[in-house]
Amino acid sequence: xxxxxxxxxxxxxxxxxxxxxxxxxxxxxxxxxxxxxxxxxxxxxxxxxxxxxxxxxxxxxxxxxxxxxxxxxxxxxxxxxxxxxxxxxxxxxxxxxxxxxxxxxxxxxxxxxxxxxxxxxxxxxxxxxxxxxxxxxxxxxxxxxxxxxxxxxxxxxxxxxxxxxxxxxxxxxxxxxxxxxxxxxxxxxxxxxxxxxxxxxxxxxxxxxxxxxxxxxxxxxxxxxxxxxxxxxxxxxxxxxxxxxxxxxxxxxxxxxxxxxxxxxxxxxxxxxxxxxxxxxxxxxxxxxxxxxxxxxxxxxxxxxxxxxxxxxxxxxxxx
Length: 320
Ligand code: UT7
Fold this sequence. Notes:
Layout: E1 3-12, E2 16-19, H1 20-24, H2 31-38, E3 42-45, H3 52-67, E4 76-80, H4 91-99, E5 105-109, H5 115-128, E6 134-141, E7 161-170, E8 175-182, E9 190-192, E10 208-210, H6 212-233, E11 243-246, H7 251-260, H8 272-275, H9 282-292, E12 301-308, E13 312-319
Parallel strand pairs: 4-5, 4-6, 11-12
Antiparallel strand pairs: 1-7, 2-3, 6-7, 8-13, 9-10, 12-13
Helix pairs in contact: 3-4, 6-7
The chain binds oxa(dethia)-CoA.
């Protein structure tokens, strides 16, 4: 059976940056509160002319270049997003058109902040089963469009951006395992209503709602468990993991997972301070950063983990 190997990465962050200080004049908050509670100093904000698919296009183009393949070779596109261009067609279909990829399977995955891990898990299964040879897996989020900028419990947390990988069928080891979970009984602590289903909030626009502390408590426990599950499934020890790439939701959640792995923070790829929480985009954005700055090297083992609204959570153990 073929393996699925990451052969290229790419990313995109919008030009505009909003600092914590910038929020102080907008809402009742402080730089000190935001940084101490989350680890965030700033986030990137999408321009009016940009969309989820336009950010995905730039990240995907970089990933294709890094992999040394052309868009026409792609036979599967999966985008994890909660802020798509349209309800349908999927942002993956829109991207397929933008990149000029021919006929292939293209769809979005709605798994909130775990969207990239879910996409990676699905693409891995496609490739291992022989249903695809070269896949684009992307996380892209225009979170600013789904935030109520007067709600201090959400608007300071989230940022915009996109990250992409090319996943190719290979004889070499690649994705070692993925572990996908959900528990819909927590649907009311982190959600966005759907205006087209008649669930309007504030007139026409629906915004993200988060009971942050309730999410926090479950996330810490659940992510601790998934570390054990992932290592056990591969017969590996904590010391076999070279890098941790966590979903960048909160530096305190990240530190608790690193502690569980006995991993020093220098071995954790962090983007939260400068990018905030970019939902499904945060893991591929961090991966691309660490591949391009030379920290993550070929042959190393990377543990990725994410947690988000649903709840949905998941992990991937990947040999680079
Ligand atoms: O990515 C998807 C998954 N999401 C997560 O994993 C998020 C997990 N949750 C968190 O990261 C944290 O819960 C937050 C950073 C969102 C909040 O931190 P917290 O330590 O859990 O604070 P809290 O929600 O318990 O709020 C504490 C206080 C409250 O005031 P009172 O009731 O104690 O007077 C809030 O109203 O902080 C207040 N508060 C703020 N104060 C200043 C909430 N947001 C802000 C703010 N600035 N932006």
